[in-house]
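Cross-posted from the bioinformatics board.
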Amino acid sequence: MFFQLSRCVIAAALLTVLPVANAASAAQAADPLPSWNEGGTKSSILEFVKETTTTGSKDFVPLKDRIATFDQDGTLWVEHPLYTQFLYILSKANDVVAKHPSFAEQEPFKTVLSGDMEKISKLSTQEILRIAVIAQDGLSVEAYNADVEKWLASARDPRWGKPYTDLIYQPMLELMEYLRANGYKTYIVTGGGQDFVRTYSESVYGIPVEQIAGTSFSTQFKYDPAGKAYLALQPELFFDDDFGGKARGIGLFIGKRPYFSAGNSTGDREMLEYTTSGEGRRLGMLVFHDDAKREYAYGPAQGLPETQVGTFTQNLYDEAVAKNWSIISMKNDWKKIFKFD
Amino acid sequence: MFFQLSRCVIAAALLTVLPVANAASAAQAADPLPSWNEGGTKSSILEFVKETTTTGSKDFVPLKDRIATFDQDGTLWVEHPLYTQFLYILSKANDVVAKHPSFAEQEPFKTVLSGDMEKISKLSTQEILRIAVIAQDGLSVEAYNADVEKWLASARDPRWGKPYTDLIYQPMLELMEYLRANGYKTYIVTGGGQDFVRTYSESVYGIPVEQIAGTSFSTQFKYDPAGKAYLALQPELFFDDDFGGKARGIGLFIGKRPYFSAGNSTGDREMLEYTTSGEGRRLGMLVFHDDAKREYAYGPAQGLPETQVGTFTQNLYDEAVAKNWSIISMKNDWKKIFKFD
C-alpha cells in the first residue's frame, strides 16, 4: 500500500487518470495466479475481480469500497499442530516461572515445563492466554513487538525446519497481490493477536499494520521515568476478534462491508456471512485443509480428522455449498503450497 | 486516498519511482497553505514537512510511517455552542418520547423538550448520551449512517445559516491536503462518535471511513428476517476515544506512533504527548480559539472565557509552550476561517 502511495504522489503530478479497467487487464495479461491450478476455484476469483473492477460492469465496485479481508491462521499460513502465536506464548513460560517461581507447580505452567507436547497441545486457549497475560503485563507495545520479532527470527517449525514466516501459502500471497493490483485494499482479520501479527504483516504479507484487525488486550497510557508517553499492555482481554467478533471487528476497524473474504474455519463463518450478505457481487472463500501429504488434513468436514485448531465442520461445509462460497481444496486447487516447494 | 490509489494502479504499470522529494517540492511550488498567514506557525508546518519528507534529511520518515492524526471538534470544524453530534442526538429526543411517552417527564428528555437552550447547553455528556443510547438501540450501522446523513442535509447552524459540514476550517483542509500530497496518511482521532464522523468523512475531509478512530458503542452480529447478516448498535459504550483514550485509540486503530498530531483541547493532550514522545522530529499543534469576531473565543487559557465544550486550560497552554508544540491562533494565523469567508 505505501509503495503504491509513493507512486500516487508522483502520479498525481504526472498522470491523468486512466480507467481502472486498463490496470485490471494489464494485471491479467500475465497469469496473476500461477500457483493455482486451472478450474472452478481459480475461475471464480478471476471472474469476481473482472466483474467488480471493469468499468461499466453491472457489478462494478468503486475503488473506495474495494475491501478484501483475510483470516490468517490456516488461511494465509500454517496453523497445525498449534497456532504459531501459541508457540511464542509457550516459549515465555520459563521467563514467567523464573520471575514467579511459585508458578512452577501451578497449571498451565507445570504442563508446559514438562515438555510433554501431547499434554501441551491439549491446553485450552484460556490456559495459554493466562501465560501471555502474565508474560506481557506492563510491557510497552514496542517492547512486545521487539520480543516477538526476536522469537520469530530464531524459532523453527520442526516439520519443515523453517522460520514460521516462511510457512505462508504462496497461492494466497498471489491472490492478495492480485486483488491489490486491482484496487482492493487487503486487510487481515484474525482471531490471533493484533499486535502479534502487526510485528511481521508488512514484511511478510505487504499489509501495513493499520490494516490488521485482531484480538487485543487493553492498554494503559503511561509515562516512563523520563516523562515520555507510551502504551502499556494490560492483563485483560479488550476485543475478541473471532466468530461474530470478526464481523464486529470489520465494522470497528474498517467500517465498510467487504466485497471479498477468505477464511478456513468455523471462526470465519460470520465474517463470510457478513461479507456475502451485502448488495451486489461478493466472494466468500474457505481454505479446506485436505492435503496431509503437502501440509495437513483436518475437518471434521468430509470425514477428515477432528481438530481443535482450525475446526472446519460439515455444517460449515454445507453452508458454503448452499451459499456458493468457494471451497479451496489445497490438494486440488494449489499447484504449490509454499514458495520453497 | 482512494483517488490516489486509483492513480497508483496505473503508476505501477507506467512509472519508475522518482524520489519522493520531487513530489514534495512540486507540492511546495505553489503556496500549499494559502489560507495561512506568513509567520512562525506556518513556517513550523512547512519546515516539518520538508525535514521529514526530503530524502537524505536526518529526520526523513519512510512513507509507511508517515501518520498524521487530527482531532475533529474544534480542530477541523466548529464545536460551539455545542458539539454538532450532540445537536443531532437532541433532535432524536422527540422520536424517543413518541415511542416511550413516559420519558417526557424524565430527564434529560424533559429539559430537551422544553427547548430552553440555556438549560439544554448545561446537560452533561452522560445525559445526552442517554438519549443516543435509547434512540439508536438495535439500529443497523447502515440505518444509523443514513439517519445522520438525512439530518446533516437539513440541519443548519443558526449563526451562519449553513449546513454544519460547511463549517470546516479551510486552513486545516489545506494542511491535511498538504500532508497527504507529501505521503502522510491522515486520520481523524475523535472523542466524537466513530460512526457519526464516518458518515461524512470521505465527502467533507477526503478521509476514508477506515481512517476514522473514535468513540464507539458495542455492536451485535445479527441476522435480519431474510437471513442477511448485519451489525446492530447496542446500548453500551465500547470505546471512549478521548484523553488517554486517544493515544490508546491510535494504538488500536493505527498501530503506529504518529509524526504529526493536531488538537484543540485538554482531551487532545495525551494524543500530542504520545505523538511528540516518539523518536526523531514530530509536530504537535493546538488550535486556539481566540477569534470571537470570526468564530468563537474560549479557554480559559490566556484569560479567555471558561467553557465546557473544548476546554483549553492554561496548564495545557503552558505544556504546549514548554514542549514546543505549535499553538495556532485562529485570529493571527488564519487569513480565512471558512471556505465561504
